[in-house]
Amino acid sequence: MPDMLSSGRARAALASSARVSVELLLVFATVAVALWGLARMWSVVWPVIIALFLTTLTWPLTRALRRRGWPSALAALLVTLLFLLAILGIVALIAVPVASQSGELTDGVVEGIQKMREWAAGPPLNIGDDQITAALDTAAARVQGSVGSLVNTVATGVATTLSGLVTAVLAVFLMFFFLKDGPRFLPWLARQLPGRLAHDVPVLAERAWDTLGAFMRSQALVGLLDAVFIGLGLWILDVPLVLPLTVLTFVSAFVPIVGAVFAGFVACLIALVSNGPTDALIVLAIILVVQQLEGNVFQPMIQSRGLGLHGAVILLAVTLGGSLAGIVGSLLAVPVTALIAVIWNYLREQLTEPPQEPEPDKSQTGVAAPGV
């Protein structure tokens, strides 16, 4: 009899495990199909994501104007124009000082190349001008032999640039419409959904919006810390173009990995051609220290407080996102993880909290309400 009971329990356990496995496979298949469809529609989805990011940054000002009685369309238009002016101002802060000191930078580049040639000609390398000329001739021959691939690379770069411009323009237009009609979305969504979904989905959407805003604010704070510390180091070393480099560091913080590498490369290059290799190495050390503090200390701490995620979870999410989808995956890893946490917490609340029973109408039961 005990053997029959144990075998029955084993069969029941196996059946339950098989059912759970099938359900998990169905969930994974659904997620895979959803990701496949998302990839097919990425040219439309990506501008929407960028517009949502921009809207979270500009919504506080729009909300303040609407509370002062501004029409929604006028408030959205003004904030969109101010945003475009801010972008142009950032470009001017970077481009104008660079253009004004372009002559000095060009002379510094030429002088730096000459110093590198003199250093290479001495011990221990002992590379003469004839060897350098031969290397340049070899490189030129290789370039001439790969003209076709270079043309394809240039064409691909031009197409990517045009696609980026179209995405940026579309994102700005979407941002305007989100700012203008955003508060109408949740009531409209509640009217379109049946039953309990009319309550659950708008609540989840509102929490997701708050989480996205917290992510953008934390990312801006991390970029500000990077810009302050790196800009302070450049100012102490008397590196030219401190203000444009500081602004570039702040803006590039919104693009993971590539943004930091690009801003650091520009800062080291300017330090090399203007101050020499010693200061360039010091600038590189400062940038590496600040980037390590950002990636391992500042960003996990700030985002874990704003998003309710542990710092280790954020590090793992960025690593996984970068390995799966490169730069875009690194950019979206943290907000996607935070949104998953929002959905999970809401489901846990709904499954663990007992349903609230409506209070009896005391006017019908004959019991007077307090104070009556």
**Helix content percent band:** over 70%
SSE order, one letter for each helix or strand: HHHHHHHHHHHHH
Bulk shape: globular
Mean pLDDT: 75
Unreliable stretches (pLDDT < 50, length at least 5) are 361-372
Class by alpha and beta content: mainly alpha
Count of discrete alpha- or pi-helical segments spanning 4 or more residues: 13
- What's the structural domain tally? 2
Family: Belongs to the autoinducer-2 exporter (AI-2E) (TC 2.A.86) family.
Membrane topology: Multi-pass membrane protein
Transmembrane segments: 20-38, 44-62, 74-96, 154-179, 220-237, 249-273, 280-302, 314-347
Subcellular location: Cell membrane
Keywords summarizing the entry:
about 375 residues; mainly alpha; 2 domains; disordered C terminus; transmembrane
Commentary on this structure:
The protein has 372 residues and is mostly helical. The chain has two domains: 138 residues, no CATH class; 159 residues, no CATH class. 86% of the residues lie in helices and 0% in strands. It has 13 helices and no strands. Helix 8 packs antiparallel against helix 9. It is globular, with a radius of gyration of 29 Å. The termini are far apart. The C terminus is likely disordered. This is AI-2E family transporter. It is a multi-pass membrane protein. Belongs to the autoinducer-2 exporter (AI-2E) (TC 2.A.86) family. Its main location: membrane. Keywords: Cell membrane, Membrane, Transmembrane, Transmembrane helix, Transport.
